[in-house]
Amino acid sequence: MVSWFRRDKPEPARPDDSRRRLSIEELAAAFPDSRAPERGAPGSGAPASTARAPAAEPDRPDGSPAGTAATAPERPTPPEDPPAPAVAPTAPVPAPPIEDRAAAIAAAAAASRAAAAEAAAAAPGRAGWRERLGGTGFARSLGGLFARNPKLDDDLLDEIETALLTADVGVAATTGLVEGMRRRMKARQFADAAALLAALRDELVALLRPVARPLEIDAGARPFVILTVGVNGVGKTTTIGKLARRYRDEGRSLMLAAGDTFRAAAVAQLQAWGERNDVPVVAQGQDADAASVAFDALQSARARGCEVLIADTAGRLHTQQGLMAELGKIKRVLGKIDPAAPHEVLMVVDGTTGQNAVSQLRQFHAAAGVTGLVVTKLDGTAKGGVVFALAREFGIPIRFAGIGERPEDLRVFDPEAFVDALLPESLGG
Ligand SMILES: Nc1nc2c(ncn2[C@@H]2O[C@H](COP(=O)(O)OP(=O)(O)OP(=O)(O)O)[C@@H](O)[C@H]2O)c(=O)[nH]1
């Protein structure tokens, strides 16, 4: 009872409160207000913003205060009090009849299942990937094949080949996969199509495993400089915003450099992400020299002892030699302050561009020495197979996958979850 009275204290709503496991009774009381828990930084295991430095946020470069984070109190442990019911009890109520209690328990169980399903959709595990990628053209065409419970024969292999090529897995990777399956089928290694499906899943994961190397922030580099590059509209600025949110939630001090000085709205877009996440943004405005912005930002981040600096660059076509050369200049200028910078040249690739992504990466790698990839827009595309082509051809680590527009939709690349979303195990069973 004591806790019901304590609940009267004004308590600001906190998104992470819902991470706490609620009992069935609490869910019944809170329903329909129970929300899916907001995800913390994947891999960190920490709830969003628990690890955030409370008061050390520097002022923004324009002199304005860094925002409420500077004075925000450290996030307290989630209260043990249950959420307020619609009507607060004022006097002891007699126990309801057995049938009513059974109905209440059934309703609470239904609420609990609904909350769990919602949580799974936003979860960092496989469920979130399935929800986002399960409906893509790639998943539907490949999954549909096995769902029809086909015969184990050459026709099935032909159909798999077509599905992989249509999804832009590429000729080389597709041929390797299909011929491997054909050899094993002839050697009678598969009892049925379900066994072939299991083998195909394993082969797809094996193709991706060597490139699943998450981005490690080297604590010895202060700041650790990430230079993002890529063609126009692939999602660079959005990815930087998502990364800012991730690193901020991990409690890292960071700074952004608005180096996309070409597109009119890019500087404002990055500043908006910075403001939303209480992260300072160094900008000189449109048409400024991108290398000069990067230089200023690195000096500033170093002076403030930031752990991470993420620099945006303007989108450019891989065929534009002058603009590609500019990337080399930005790298050289950064190297004047720290010879090891940039520590990561992160190329953002749009997963919907299919095989064109292969030639983009080739050119960007030649011009800027790409050390990691982010493949965006994997949600809702029929062409996500390009991930396999990139992995096979370049072996460059795929750090993150963009599977939606929400900040939490940038996932550390997980080959098992990715393949599982495209080709669930249960299809062939
Ligand atoms: N569905 C989906 N949309 C995304 C994803 N990542 C980015 N976008 C969207 O892609 C569009 C372009 O993103 P930007 O971040 O502006 O792209 P950019 O590379 O900075 O663009 P330029 O500055 O012109 O080179 C925006 O509408 C984003 O919301 C993703 O993973 N999934």
UniProtKB/TrEMBL annotation:
| Entry EC no(s) | 3.6.5.4
Q: Where is it located?
A: Cell membrane; Cytoplasm
Instruction: Indicate the transmembrane segments per the record.
Output: none
Q: How does it sit in the membrane?
A: Peripheral membrane protein
Q: Where is this region: Disordered?
A: 1-96
According to the UniProt entry, which residue ranges have a biased composition of type Pro residues?
A: 75-96
- The answer on whether this UniProt entry bears the keyword Nucleotide-binding reads yes
Keyword presence, Hydrolase: yes
Domain SRP54-type proteins GTP-binding residues, every copy: 397-410
Reaction catalysis annotation: GTP + H2O = GDP + phosphate + H(+)
Which HAMAP family does the UniProt record give? Answer: FtsY
Q: What is this protein called?
A: Signal recognition particle receptor FtsY
What organism does the record attribute this protein to? Luteimonas endophytica
Task: Name the gene that codes for it.
Answer: ftsY
